[in-house]
Specification:
The complex is a heterodimer of chains A (170) and B (269).
Chain A lengths: L1 H15 L11 E2 L2 H11 L2 E4 L23 E2 L4 E2 L10 H15 L6 E4 L6 H11 L5 E3 L3 H7 L5 E2 L14
Parallel strand pairs in A: 1-6, 2-4, 2-5, 5-6
Antiparallel strand pairs in A: 3-7
Chain B lengths: L1 H16 L7 H19 L4 E3 L4 E4 L10 E7 L5 E8 L6 E7 L7 E6 L5 E9 L4 E8 L13 H5 L5 E5 L9 E7 L22 E8 L2 E8 L8 E6 L5 E9 L4 E8 L5
Classes of the chains: A alpha/beta (170), B mainly beta (269).
Chain lengths: 170, 269
């Protein structure tokens, strides 16, 4: 009972701060201080679902530099590009499910989803995790821009994608 | 457990009350490193001089639509600028446009609409006839402009491709600078937009060259790429030395050429 009360207080605290009225049914919306607190105490799985590195377009003029900026995210994150798509293929959806199971280990491990600010992909991915029965799903809408702006450190990210990623075929 | 939760709550409270930290020097260092790499790729070892008083760059600090960010470059009059570079650091093809002016240009003001992929520095670099480079910088908050869908299905986006419209922003007067806005209907697909039905990337197809002449004399030449917004728009100035034809030749990355001639003064709008 006490635990429940404390948990409720925590949820209130976590949910109170975000300026935007973002909502995640069945999950919790985090702002930067709340995310920091969660990382410090609960070792959540941090899942970055920012879009994959861009494919080089055909037809760039010879003198045009093609230099995609390296993608940075919150240290300790796993970068799963594409899994937040609004209409994933069945193959991608099941790959995501397996990946999530391996990362979480148990259905009550806290999972934090984020991508870029104003990016719906993290909301989609969080919603899917809730649907798959994870009980502690968090969404961090400020994304990597909000994190960087708050002066927090970032680390170079490497995308983790299905070996046979149908999304990447031209 | 209760203790731990209390600690979380306390920590949350403390960080909430703490004053917001200054901009991460981390981020600033990363941006400086990025610009160093870019400027070396684009300009080699050529020195970039302070552009104050020579070139200025206006853009909304926080863009409403990252796929359509209005940019204005203003050049000091009478300084003999022969070309202008627009560089958007965080875009994958950062050199968004390079514009070279012809003898009949009045290159005081130039406006474009661009896509911005991320929070980014943006630079306008003016090159004078004697080969010196003058730079100005601006930081923009926008994100996701490169993967934003064009907003209609591919077939609809391609309908009427190459259609052009010219708006004169000042009355036509012989021998005095005339400001005009050119609109080109073109999806400017950048290869990063996913078709939501087929789940495939729409192949890149974008305007890569535009030549604008007046009565056969060059007003401006633009090299551009995937950073230009859908339906590229360019606002530029030139001096008409009499009635005549403004001819636009636009070329895209699939080799299609679009031409249009506008007889000036326009008889109707």
């Amino acid at each position: 009972m006490n635990l429940r009360l404390a948990a409720a207080a925590l949820l209130l605290l976590l949910a109170a701060a975000p300026a935007e009225m973002a909502k995640l049914p069945g999950g919790t919306v985090l702002d930067t201080p709340a995310l920091e607190a969660l990382i410090a105490t609960e070792h959540p799985v941090l899942i970055d679902v920012a879009p994959p590195p861009p494919p080089q377009p055909a037809g760039l003029a010879a003198g045009t530099p093609w230099m995609p900026a390296p993608h940075e995210d919150i240290p300790g994150s796993v970068w799963l590009p594409s899994v937040g798509q609004s209409t994933p293929t069945a193959a991608l959806a099941s790959w995501f499910r397996a990946r999530l199971a391996a990362l979480a280990g148990s259905p009550d491990r806290p999972l934090v989803f984020y991508c870029h600010i104003h990016c719906k992909l993290s909301f989609n991915a969080a919603e899917r995790a809730i649907g798959d029965g994870y009980s502690r799903v968090y969404w961090y809408p400020p994304g990597i821009e909000g994190w960087t702006e708050a002066g927090k450190p970032t680390a170079l990210a490497k995308p983790l994608q299905p070996a046979d990623n149908q999304e990447r075929k031209p | 457990m209760k203790k731990a939760l209390f600690a979380v709550a306390l920590l949350g409270l403390v960080t909430t009350l703490a004053p917001p930290p200054a901009r991460a020097s981390d981020a600033a260092t990363a941006r400086a490193r990025r610009w160093h790499a870019l400027s070396e790729t684009i300009f080699g070892k050529r020195p970039l001089l302070d552009g104050s008083g020579m070139v200025s760059l206006d853009a909304p600090y926080r863009a409403l639509d990252a796929a359509l960010v209005p940019i204005k470059i203003t050049l000091a009059e009478g300084r003999n600028v022969k070309s202008v570079y627009l560089i958007i650091d965080e875009n994958p093809a950062p050199l968004a446009a390079r514009i070279t002016f012809g003898p009949d240009a009045a290159p005081h003001e130039l406006k474009l609409r661009v896509r911005v992929n991320d929070y980014t520095d943006m630079q306008a670099v003016a090159e004078t006839a004697d080969g010196k480079l003058y730079m100005t910088r601006r930081f923009i908050k926008a994100s996701g402009g490169c993967s934003a869908p064009v907003g209609e299905d591919d077939a609809a986006a391609l309908a009427g491709i190459g259609r052009m419209k010219l708006n004169l922003l000042r009355p036509f007067t012989v021998n005095s600078p005339l400001e005009a806005q050119l609109l080109i209907r073109h999806p400017n697909f950048n290869g990063m937009q996913m078709n939501q039905l087929t789940r495939l990337y729409t192949p890149a197809r974008f305007i890569d060259k535009v030549d604008i002449t007046y009565n056969g004399s060059l007003v401006l030449h633009m090299d551009s790429d995937i950073s230009l917004s859908t339906n590229p728009a360019i606002t530029f100035g030139f001096v008409p030395h009499g009635p005549g034809t403004l001819e636009v030749v636009a070329h895209d990355s699939q080799g299609t050429v679009f031409r249009h001639g506008f007889a000036l003064p326009l008889t109707s709008d």
